[in-house]
Design brief:
266 residues, Nucleotidyltransferase, domain 5, binds zinc ion, 3 domains
């Protein structure tokens, strides 16, 4: 393991430094001045002459801190090389992976960029444009399940009258083929009737994307029938009315699918 020399001020950091530098052999040292380098400098890659220690380069990341990476100089041919700094890059990557995860989860749960900026001010301050970039790059890199494996259906209800009898017509349409999946008439449209209608006409074990109007009972019914396999999207026509009332925000299909992934992964 890397030999760690510590000054009195650095002493409490011994444990954390050990875990960070654990992967390096005992050819390396972390000096009392905080420089990471080989104890015995390497041979010159150009001429093979033993190189000498030659100061360090400092790499800084805002708020997080800095790392001093040793340099070596060949006194025979003048070649200068720098020590590997993957531990520093890994440290930063690990930190920003968590920051990204926090921003992404807040955003997928409809937190505004302004709100995320406020929350981040307690953790790692960054403005809302930075947050937006973090979220957008994460969504671009995220593996979204192939659309072809998900069924897209529209569910609709109509309330025709047969004489003096109120009837309820429940309809399922395949969003892609535009074909009617089921179209049935009932005397009631209570939750049990709708549940039974969905169970009989759809595969409840496969991911599904259901588009409906705003009736509030749907989400609970879909949860009971499909578990976490259903993504419920309000019809855009109805959704626009909601947005006017500043109710839930419109979410893209990609974001909904990404959210499903996160939920099902847990
Ligand atoms: Zn050389």
């Amino acid at each position: 393991m890397t030999k760690i020399q510590l000054s009195l001020i650095d002493f409490p950091h011994h444990e954390i430094l050990s875990s960070i530098l654990n992967d390096f052999s005992n050819d390396f040292e972390f000096t009392a001045d905080g420089v990471f380098r080989r104890i015995i400098p390497p041979l010159c890659p150009d001429c093979g002459f033993p190189m000498s220690h030659n100061g360090f380069n400092t790499y800084r990341k805002r708020i997080l801190g800095e790392a001093n990476i040793g340099r070596y100089l060949c006194r025979a041919c003048g070649k200068s090389v720098e020590e590997d700094r993957t531990f520093w890059n890994n440290l930063k990557a690990g930190f920003f992976d968590i920051i990204t995860e926090i921003c992404l989860r807040l955003r997928l749960n409809h937190a505004s960029y302004e709100l995320i900026e406020q929350i981040m001010s307690f953790i790692y301050p960054c403005d809302k444009d930075t947050v937006r970039n973090i979220v957008q790059s994460a969504i671009e890199e995220m593996k979204v399940p192939a659309i072809r494996d998900i069924r897209f259906v529209h569910y609709d209800e109509q309330h025709p009258k047969a004489g003096r009898n109120q009837k309820y017509r429940l309809t399922l349409l395949d969003s892609i083929s535009r074909q009617v999946i089921a179209d049935e008439l009932f005397d009631s449209k209570d939750a049990g009737t709708v549940e039974d209608f969905l169970r009989r006409n759809l595969d409840t074990h496969k991911p599904i994307f259901i588009i409906t109007d705003l009736y509030r009972g749907y989400s609970d019914i879909f949860k009971r029938v499909f578990g976490n396999k259903a993504t419920h999207q309000l019809c855009l026509l109805h959704l626009n009315k909601l947005i006017v009332r500043d109710f839930p925000r419109k979410t893209s299909i990609e974001q909904e699918l990404v959210l499903c992934n996160i939920i099902s992964a847990n």
